[in-house]
Design a protein that fits this description.
By secondary structure, the chain is of the alpha/beta class. The chain is 20% helix and 23% strand. Helix 1 packs parallel to helix 2.
């Protein structure tokens, strides 16, 4: 059985950045990616996705994003950047390697692959994210629902939903962005337990990430002081809040057992 210094599971931005730092420490990481290229989940996100962070704050260590540093890169730009980063990284990147199990073995670990192979490693970095196995809650009534239930990870464009009645469940960035886009082609309601929390994308004329950096909040260990998990605020340049204000989409309160009717 082959044995390596460090196995990095996942070749998205976290896995690639981890490999960069491991190489700088003199280690020899092996990056294991289930798909056929080092783009993480970015190539499977919906077509209109644009970053909420400017290019200057979206770079991985060792390689600037390039182009106008104040622009908000599109999904395809991120895909191209990650491919360029992986090529220049010079690490042992193995695509088509889906890890199915990790277990301790002596002082190290053993990793099982979907094709039956096994790899030994002194250390393991898990950088898979949550996109590959999306959470699908068992909501009451789904077993008798005759419509289509689609997770946001499967959404690409509004075209297949044109003219339909659609309910988007959630109040985070993805839910609001997709609901507003769908509202241009369908009748859409955004269902959430609490009202949408908004945060301006460019307070006082500068991007939010600028203020987080200059104040040091982006690196402050604030999580230890939170009694409850933080709720995600929707970063908005004005478009999304304005769309909900005129009912495109409309927002309806929901609970685990509530029903959104026509």
């Amino acid at each position: 059985m082959e044995h390596v210094d460090v196995a990095v599971i996942g070749a998205g931005q976290s896995g690639l950045a981890s490999a960069h730092h491991l190489l700088r420490e003199g280690l020899t990481p092996v990056i294991l990616e289930a798909s056929d290229r080092a783009t993480g989940s970015w190539s499977r996100y919906h077509d209109s996705l644009t970053l909420f962070s400017p290019a200057r704050y979206s770079s991985l260590p060792g390689l600037p994003f390039g182009g106008d540093p104040d622009r908000y890169p599109h999904r395809d730009e991120v895909v191209a950047y990650l491919l360029r980063y992986a090529e220049r990284l010079g690490a042992d990147l193995r695509t088509g390697h889906r890890v199915t199990a990790v277990r301790t073995a002596g002082k190290g670990f053993e990793l099982d692959f979907a094709d039956g192979r096994t790899l030994g490693a002194d250390a393991v970095v898990t950088a898979t994210g949550g996109f590959g196995r999306p959470n699908r809650p068992a909501l009451p009534g789904l077993d008798s629902f005759t419509g289509t239930v689609t997770h946001v990870s499967e959404y690409r464009t509004p075209a297949p939903f044109a003219g339909q009645r659609v309910v988007v469940v959630g109040a985070g960035n993805s839910a609001v962005q997709v609901a507003v886009e769908l509202a241009g082609a369908a009748r859409v309601s955004l269902a959430s337990r609490a009202p949408v929390r908004w945060f301006p994308q460019r307070p006082f004329g500068r991007d939010l990430h600028f203020w987080l950096a200059v104040t040091g909040v982006d690196a402050a260990p604030l999580g230890r002081f939170q009694r409850h998990p933080a709720t995600m605020a929707v970063i908005d340049d004005g478009r999304y809040r304005a769309a909900l204000a005129v009912g495109r989409p409309d927002r309806r309160p929901s609970s685990p057992v509530s029903t959104v009717r026509p």
